[in-house]
Amino acid sequence: MHAYYLSQWVLFFFIYSFIGWVWESCYVSVRKRRWVNRGFMHGPMLPLYGSGALAVLVSTIGVRENMVLIFLLGMLAATVLEYFTGAAMERLFHVRYWDYSNQKLNLHGYICVSSSLCWGCFSVLLVRVVHVPIETAVLRIPLAVAEGAALVLSVAAAVDLTQSFNEAMDLKRILSQLEESREQIRKLQERLKVAAEDAKEDYLRYSGERSRKRLSRKAAYLERIDMKRQERRRQLEELYQRAEQLLKEEIPSRVGEMIGEERREELAALRQNIRREIGKMGERTDRSYLHAARHLWRNPTAVSERFRNALDELRKNMEDRNR
User: I want to staple 164 with a disulfide (CB 3.0 to 4.6 A). Which of 41, 122, 181, 191 is the partner?
Assistant: First the structure.
């Protein structure tokens, strides 16, 4: 193999990242029946393919004439890279950007036998066919021009990566907040229900009555998101009013003694928690939701074990917008 300069390696990385983006975008778009700008980043590149291509080229140095070794070494290098990249991204963002859990013989959903075999085939195709004309073209570029192009592409990619990273963190934060909010509302409802029922048992000996609630939905994405936020706020306000009502309720003195100071303190603390949760609602901006949706739109197969319900809710809001 020709000894490449650093700038030439960088150009190979961007070329194969672009080729990978074309392949993935076309493949996913056909499956989804709509155009999908596939990948973690905004620009036309998939760094995993660029990194995979470089891993294959490096790992097959010295065995370029042996197709079996190209297949095996290329498959191994790309599979290891895919596994650790997938694991690292899920650990960082709590979202799995590709998932092989439904494939046979998979390892933690990050890699599987069929994917590894494809990497092996791609390795042979890359080394024996694709890389030959690309190598010739890159080596013909004057070194000064290659270094300039590598620098410009690296800066552009760094800017894109920064923006994409921020969007991924927005998605992670939105999913975390949605899941936390759902869980908090559920817990508050359960606690208030128990507190209300305890007070009601005593109170119903002297009087009797009570009532319930409702819900609403439907609209475009931001409208729907806003409705969701208003709905959660309304639920929390109702819980707050209910707790306040139980505290202020004119209960006969004998019952008041039975309820006791401890229960009143519990209701007061519960009311405080509800007010705190209402305050958190204002932290989630429309811009954050749009960033999260844009990132999810580019990665339609993304899954999350930790935020499964929140991710399903966000995805459903996106689908309703497009109806």
Answer: 41
| Domain range annotation of the chain | 6-141, 170-205+214-321
For 303, list phi and psi in degrees, rounded to 5: -135, 165
Pairing status of strand 106-107 against strand 111-112: antiparallel
Residue 69 CB coordination number (10 Å): 15
pLDDT in tens, 207-238: 444 433 333 333 455 556 566 666 666 666 66
Question: 190: left (phi > 0), else alpha (psi -120 to 50), else beta?
Answer: alpha
pTM: 0.62
Q: Report, as an integer, the average pLDDT of 31-37.
A: 81
Residues in the chain: 323
Question: What whole-number percentage of the chain has pLDDT above 90?
Answer: 30
pLDDT at res. 172 = 73
Q: Which two tokens stand for residue 72?
A: 């095996």
User: Looking at residues 99-126, what average pLDDT do you find?
Assistant: 91
**Token digits of residue 175:** 């999913």
Beta partners for residue 107, in sequence order: 111
| Helix H or strand E encompassing 112 | strand 111-112
Task: Give the H or E element holding residue 23.
Answer: helix 6-32
Distance CA 290, CA 274 (A): 27
Contact indicator for 227, 238 with CB cutoff of 8 Å: no
Handedness of CA 257, 262, 268, 273 (dihedral sign): negative
Beta bridge partners of 96: 303
Residue 111: strand, helix, or coil: strand
C-alpha pair distances (Å), 225 with each of 89, 161, 172, 312? 27, 27, 16, 13
Contact present, 124 and 71 (Cβ < 8 Å): yes
Tokens representing residue 53 in the block? 């291509």
